[in-house]
Amino acid sequence: MATPDTGAGRPAGWRPAALVAREKQTATGRTLRFDVPGWPGHLPGQHVDVRLTADDGYQAVRSYSLASPAHGTAVELGIQSVPGGEVSPYLADDLPVGAEIEVKGPLGGWFVWNGSSDGSLLLLAGGSGIVPLMAMLRARRDTRYDSPCVLLYSVRDPQEIWYADELHSAEPFLTVRVLHTRRAPAGAARPAGRITAADLQGLPIPADSRCYVCGPTGFVEHSADLLRAAGHPADHIRTERFG
């Protein structure tokens, strides 16, 4: 795994990034794969700034999470199209394959998994908050760690699951529990609703597991409160929020 410079105030400069492929994840979620010459590598959990420049010189910058561990010059981003958004709808559906944008990074040194120890992990994702956690899961799989790893994935309904096939085939490397908040599939044992203390009970991991939580602000704050109430040490809980 590459070891990027994550020091504060020392991010890499803007680099050209050519779109190689686009994959649909949900009705509004896309995976975009770019080739970034000279990419220095990154750690799972980091993100990049993306810059678009219009013909008249107007520029827009947004931040997006990296969805996979470092592999040469390949950079994979998860893009959730926001209705009325200035950047995300264009990236999600209109940027032509082969076109170039600019990226700056990798950025962020707190919400990262560096693989320095084979400790157990508890990951909590809300919606597209699965993206940086997926980078951690993929890196962990690639390094063949065999300690317990659990993902609690909160989505509105079954159609909102990112990486559905990959997560479905992840057992026994990963225990996945999908929590539907608005509409559960027919026959589901758990009724639709937000994550509760009961969802944290009986997980096959020790109480001192490292915890990573990513999603909308309300989900992250509520989940972090539940983790602390369940006995997880505050210094073992790392959060990343958006919205």
TrEMBL record:
<dbReference type="Pfam" id="PF00175">
    <property type="entry name" value="NAD_binding_1"/>
</dbReference>
<keyword id="KW-0001">2Fe-2S</keyword>
<dbReference type="InterPro" id="IPR008333">
    <property type="entry name" value="Cbr1-like_FAD-bd_dom"/>
</dbReference>
<keyword id="KW-0479">Metal-binding</keyword>
<dbReference type="InterPro" id="IPR001709">
    <property type="entry name" value="Flavoprot_Pyr_Nucl_cyt_Rdtase"/>
</dbReference>
<dbReference type="InterPro" id="IPR017938">
    <property type="entry name" value="Riboflavin_synthase-like_b-brl"/>
</dbReference>
<protein>
    <submittedName>
        <fullName>Ferredoxin reductase</fullName>
    </submittedName>
</protein>
<dbReference type="InterPro" id="IPR001433">
    <property type="entry name" value="OxRdtase_FAD/NAD-bd"/>
</dbReference>
<dbReference type="InterPro" id="IPR017927">
    <property type="entry name" value="FAD-bd_FR_type"/>
</dbReference>
<dbReference type="InterPro" id="IPR050415">
    <property type="entry name" value="MRET"/>
</dbReference>
<keyword id="KW-0411">Iron-sulfur</keyword>
<dbReference type="Pfam" id="PF00970">
    <property type="entry name" value="FAD_binding_6"/>
</dbReference>
<feature type="domain" description="FAD-binding FR-type">
    <location>
        <begin position="12"/>
        <end position="113"/>
    </location>
</feature>
<dbReference type="InterPro" id="IPR039261">
    <property type="entry name" value="FNR_nucleotide-bd"/>
</dbReference>
<keyword id="KW-0408">Iron</keyword>
